[in-house]
Structures are given as structure tokens and as C-alpha cells.
Amino acid sequence: TWYYKAFILKDYYKEKESGKMDSKSRMQAIEAIKKNLELDPKNKYAEECKKIAAYLATTFYNDAAKELNEQKFQSAYNNYHNYLESVKISQPLKTDTAALFYAGYSAYMSKNNNEALNYFNKVLELKYREPNLYYCLGKLYWSTGEKDKAINILTQGSKIF
Fold first, then answer.
1. Which spans in 70-144 are helix H?
2. Rounded to an integer, what distance in angstroms lies between the CA atom of residue 33 and that of residue 39?
3. How far does CA 45 lie from the centroid of its chain?
């Protein structure tokens, strides 16, 4: 039942809500997928659910990139976050460092400093190579009074770039 709910909600999103950033059907489809995977001990519909999650993840990513280009940073952050959560369902071993960085950047630009620090530190650990990572982290640390961390991260960045 949860698989069919996810399938119907995905199709509803595709036909009626495609392009709506606040689509309820898309989020409900993800929740139905999670419930199916939780309650289906034989994984009868797991592959189909993962395909739906992959499709929806792509829509979140596309919306995130669009919103980022339009400098709608809070919406971009929400969509990158939803993309990363959806990808965990369809491809649990995938690490999309670019999406992690842009989630952090969108959070940073929308003044969501805790989330920005969280995402930036993840990509830093993954050795993501982007000069703005060091710049934004340095500014975040400086603004929170962590001057030593700010100087250290900016020094690291200047050595690399």
C-alpha cells in the first residue's frame, strides 16, 4: 500500500505540481517510500521505491539549482537538503560533495549559520576543493568569535589556492 501511495503521489506531483517548490505530494511521496522500506521485510517493492526516490531527488536538485541561480537562498537550501535526504534512499552509498557544498552555501547566504557550518565541515572532511568553502567558513568562524579557527581555515585555504 505504501509503495502504491508513493507511486500515485509521484505521478500527481509530475502531472499537477511539477515546478512547485512547496509541493506537498512530493514530500508525501518521500514519506510513503520511507514507510514502505520500513514495513516491507521482504523488500518486495524496494527497487521500485528507490526508483521513485531517485526521480524525486532529481527534481529537488533541479529546483535547488534554479533557486540558487535566482538567489532564493532559503528555498535553495531546503531543496538541496531534500535532495540529499532523497538520495540517501535511492543510493545510500552516494556522497554528492557538490550538493553538500551548495546546501552549505545556500544556508550561509540565508543566514542559517549552524546548518552552514554543518555542511561546510562535512565537505571539508571530504576534501572538497572550492576556494569559497574556506572563505565562507572563515567568515562564519570570525562572526561567532572563533578567531583562531577563522585564521586557521583561511590559512589552509590560502595554501591550497
1. 73-90, 97-109, 113-125, 131-143
2. 10
3. 25
Q: How many CB atoms lie within 10 A of CB 138?
A: 21
Q: Give the predicted TM-score (pTM) of the model.
A: 0.91
Q: Which three cell numbers stand for residue 85?
A: 535526504
Q: Give tens-digit pLDDT for 88-118.
A: 999 999 999 999 999 999 999 999 999 999 9
Q: Which residues of 53-87 are buried (b: 16+ CB within 10 A; e: fewer)?
A: bebbbebbbebbbebbeeebbebbbbbbbbbbebb
What would the grid cell of residue 37 be?
A: 522500506
The residue whose grid cell reads 521513485 is 52
* Secondary structure (3-state) at 39: helix
